[in-house]
Amino acid sequence: MNPFSWDESGVPAVVMTDAEGIVTGWTDAAEKLLGYHAGEVLHRSSSIFLEPGDRSARGDGGRWSGLVMARHRDDGPLLLHVHGARLHAAAQRESWLLTLAADGPPVTEPILSRAPVAIGVWDAGLRCVWLNETARRLGDVFPHYRLGSRPESTPGLDGEAIAGAMRRVLDDGTPVLDRECRWASEDESAEQTLSTSLYRLDGADGRPLGVCALAMDTSRSRARDRLAMLGEVSIRIGSTLDVMKTAQELAELAVPGLADYVTVDVSEHVLPDDEPLRRMDATEVSVPVFHRAGAASIHREFPESLWRRGEVVFVPPSSPFTAVLSSGRSHFEPVMDTSPCTWLDVDPDRAEVIHETGMHSLIIVPLQARGDILGVAVFVRTENPAPFTEDDLNLAEMLAARAALSLDNARQYTRERTAALALQRDLLPRNLSGGGAVDLAWRYLPSNVIGTVGGDWYDVIPLGDGRVALVVGDVTGHGINAAATMGRLRTAVRTLAYQGLPPDEVLAFLDTMVVRLAEEDAGAGDAPLDTTGATCVYAVYDPVTRRCAMAGAGHPPPAIVHPSGEVRFARLPSGTPVGLGLGSYERVEVEIAEGSLIALYTDGLVERRGADIDAGLQRLGTALAAPTLPLDDLCARVIGTMVDDTPSEDDIALLIARTRTAPS
User: Fold this and answer.
1) Do 624 and 638 touch, CB atoms closer than 8 A?
2) Is residue 231 a contact partner of residue 201, using CB atoms and an 8 Å limit?
3) Which of 82, 74, 73, 77 is nearest to 101 (CA)?
């Protein structure tokens, strides 16, 4: 039973009126519902408590029902669900029986009055007729949240815009959802955000009675969103030491939570492998300043962008982009100034894009790390109608600061890797010749994970008596030091090979030499001894005897492939890596059929994290079991079989020699 439409005896609130709406009957339940005594309403127009309307247009003419705005005697407006029925009597004039019921609690009921959501009702004339307690508190900030006020007549407020939105809701019935309003808190220490939705109230005859506004303070929700976004920085930005990927991660993190369109443009020195910007021609009004490293948009087609990722970005010298780059201070433009006589006059292409896409709010933040400015991050709003705020600027600066550290780490890593790769390329052989003893093919794949390049090497050394030496090695560690050590070891092996020493003695001398070099590098003894070592396989093939002598220093064994396709791995005593000073190596000699293959490789080819090396050797044997293939094709087959799509954790070196036979 609804306590707002029935009295304690269960009698509904009933009112009788004549055809002109004059009250002719009034019940106790009606008095309890509306607060009027019978003497105050009898023989008076029902418009005292009920909005007048053309009942003939309601229902089928004899009955009608619907929502009607009524007025309580003491508490003001309330919504009622009214059922009307026409009564006929032969000796009397036409009359109406109205049954009044609150469709749920009336708007004056304490539950809604104390709701944390601000609820207000404006009538069809846009006059405020009811507010709950939460909405009344908004009157200090938004003057139109006051009983009897109208938005367009409220001073200090963009009342015409608010009134226009309400009129559109009244006209077409389309609600307005999540309209943002922002204002500073009382102590101006923070910004508050109000999310307002408007929807139309229709009467029983279908005519609009007014507009209801629901407003919610979403400031705390936005604060939580900002904290969540900052929490994602450490997870989503800097996942790899790659400048382009790190920049893209920043752009994607900020869209759409902070901005509709974000670009990350970096300076020339951040991408050392790219063509220097200073060599590119400037236009009459713009100069090449950045590389576009990251970009994200709410639009898949990127209509906001004049440049794609990887392209050079031109900007006018007088633009805010160059100002941020030179000053190191952010550019904050909540409402973009696109009027004449601004810097956009000399950048018509960018101005056209701004107008076409509706860009209206702009933040440009420098990417600074360790005292160096790496570039700028640009945040733009197009579809989101709210301008950027100081809170948004602070969030953008925090995102940029954290991303800049990741970019700087990526830059330093890229520099070191580039230098190590360049050194490695210079130290590795470019042209190998097996003379008349062997035909050759080789492959080298540097590591593509954080450990940078390693110290793997390969070499083929023709000896003066027609023999040929084959060597593959792997220096422990990664980076420039490993590459430099690799170059020294390769030179030492060549020197020892030219002396005609057998493989076991070559490795023994190499072990002693590495230890002595480490002792010399240690200086007077203050610096710790660098015990950098290396694994190695050294083999000498004689095309006259078709015998191959080989020795290993802690390295995977060579594979020997018979012309029939049979694959076996040489049984070499493992030996210790060179550089430990423990070298005692044994030589093994095997006879090899003409046209056989000798395959030397580093452990990066056969070892994978979590996998047994025996499984890797078995896969390698299967891949090599095609001795009639051209050697280049066979190398490609081996690499394709052994290297999957996952990043390689180590360098890979592969050397394949097909043996020949020479007369004595």
Assistant:
1) yes
2) no
3) 82
